[in-house]
Amino acid sequence: MAPFNPASVAPHDQVISDHVPISFLCQLSKQGSDTCKPKSYYKMDVRILNRPGVLQKVQSAWDNHPPDAGNPQRKFQLAWIRVREVLKQESQKANEENRTSYDAVNELRLLRSLFRSLSGPDFSEETLARIRQLEQVKARNARETIKSLYLHDGSKTSDRTLIMSEVQDFMSTLYTAETTSPEREEERANALNCIHAKVTVAQDRAISIKPTPAEVDTIAHLMKKEKSPGLDGVTIEVLLASWNFVRGDCLEMIEHFWEEGKLIKGTRTAVIKLNIPKNQEVEYLKNWRPLSIMILSYKIIAKILAERLKKLMPGLDFSSLIPVKRGIRQGCPLAPYLFALCIQVLMSMLNAELLTRTIRGLRINDDEQLFHQIFADDTGLFVQMERHIFENTMSTLRRFELASGAKLNLGKTLVLPLCTDNPVPTWLQQSQCTIALPFDRFRYLGILAGNNVLEEEILQQLQENYQKKLEHMANRLLTWPEKVLLAQSVLRALPNFILMAIGLSAKGTHALEKITADFLWERDTTGKKKRPLIAWGTFSRRKIHGGLGWPNMNHIASAFLLKNLSKLILAKNEDWIKVANAIIAFKLEKSKKTMEVRN
């Protein structure tokens, strides 16, 4: 691999943002090597295709295949390069004709100077909304900027060259495949032997058969729109707009992949973008989330496999279907399904240890014990707090690491001692895991948990989530129907999980409804709250009664409470019901003993 020059990626006259240092090319080769280059590609705009004569030029460029185009995969990529050049030229012409491009920073400075010289009420609502929107863009860019970073040796630097070098080293290590070994292959075989469900010959044929043209047509229209393009700069909208003359080459490209069973070098090239971290420690590179943006041909093939896997997930044997050579990162349509398959292997390994009693779960009653809970990528294990049981559990997790190549992040692994007042034992403190003390606050599935968590704390968490969503919505120039639609689809859905899990009082639901009402009615140019056009009681009525059908959040909370109570009475097999019944029985027994002592 050629030496990496950080200065070529992050010049000193540019801001370190998601456009320069965070995005680079990572070539995934069979040996696990990679190369990092500056991000430089053209993002196609589907609106250019609506200009007169542009689609004909695109089709002419697409059909102009050189004689030495290579295999169909290479031919498909080269065709998009020619189309990209045509659309580049048309975009330049459009900019010269319309002269509508502007510098957002200069406009912001102009509006600020006007705002200082004029009084607030003299501004129109559109102008003030534009000022707020530009301020929001500037704040978001500031959040996405790496101004300083802690290096691997613990030192902190603001030098852009060192920052880029650290990013390159970190990503190279993260995306480099581990070499196979006899020990790893043996552990992988033992892990797969824990899986008893196998697919039939018909199911195996259904997932491995060559896609039909009708299936490819369906997949192309199922792919999500408004997604960032990869290195080729092609979006799904551009593909569908030119599908009539692109379809044949696309089918040929897919057929070639199915026959050869491998992707060419250019198809395996991804643009890696780091997302804004969930926490505030932006100076630690490990907290940023990498997102791999693949090119269009990879997305189509991955989407075909993902849709087939979705149908066969209950009984899939993936030991021979997918050779375990490389991990698939976030951003690929296959990633969530392959992750679920790998987690199934882990659960099978843990269940095998449970049967041999080397690991024992948390006993609920004489016949039942709670062992694990899995929600998406959050896995919770409930084991008895004994040293040999904890060590056997960690040993099983390390064997899964060896078999799958996945990494157990001990720093983010939380150990929570339950039903004990004893101090944390020394052997548990030496496990490098994060230990939650009895009165610590922690988050589980996004909900604040811990001893004596007050409703005010849960409500504050919800209000913060509301404010984050409103930051992206309040500054837009939205019509009244658009505001109602956004409020219904976004704001109303935020508290549903908490209402279902723990519930809120009428005071809490009223506070959330007040935030929604403030968003709908806004404020005038002086900052004063506008007079509501409709009373909230009328607004919440059903449409047949003259309202807008906005459901009362207090009624929703009551409905979730009744649903949980009915499950508590009628359902018997769900884990949370078993735990709830055990807690109720324990408290009743404890109160009974207390009464006997008093008597």
UniProtKB/TrEMBL annotation:
Domain of life the protein comes from: Eukaryota
Record domain Reverse transcriptase: where: 322-446
InterPro entries in the cross-refs: RT_dom
Full protein name: Reverse transcriptase domain-containing protein
Source organism phylogeny: Eukaryota, Viridiplantae, Streptophyta, Embryophyta, Marchantiophyta
Organism listed in the record: Riccia sorocarpa
